[in-house]
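Students often ask what a holo structure prediction actually looks like on paper. The answer is less mysterious than it sounds. You provide the chain, you provide the ligand, and the output is a string of discrete structure tokens encoding the 3D arrangement of the protein together with CA2.
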Amino acid sequence: MKKVLVIHGPNLNRLGTREPEIYGHQTLADIDSALVERGKAFGIEVESFQSNHEGAIVDKIQSAANYHGLIINPAAYTHTSIAIRDAILAIDFPVIEVHLSNIYKREPFRHHSMISDAVTGKIVGLGHHGYLLALEAVHGLIGR
Ligand code: CA2
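The corresponding structure tokens follow.
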């Protein structure tokens, strides 16, 4: 069975508790369980990981050799982390960057992503649907 890792960056564990107009009403648990269910339909095992710590995210990416795809929302580290970028550059399977909000409609400091030129593709601004679309994309890219 193919395995896909989903990594959520800092503060995404608080989803559903504030700023629903930007991030939606779904909790991270809602998103993760929807991904597991959609994964079953695709024959993909989905594992999710959330951390508020840059190094823990780097460690998780480095230990992902036995997965077939990665979906990552590095949250605020998107805009700052060369370390996460470097870890992604060492991956040889599809990586999809996801953002709940349309970062290009927000403050200028959110317009630049450190990882966009290191990933396979990117989905922004579609809320929790973006994660499911990313899983569909990985499914299409890795086959059965
Ligand atoms: O739109 C996205 O998915 C972001 O990656 C979310 C990050 C933000 O720093 C990026 O610029 C864009 C912030 C995640 C924090 O989300 C919270 C949501 C509700 C309550 C607390 C935090």
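The helical segments are 20-23, 28-42, 54-62, 82-89, 129-142.
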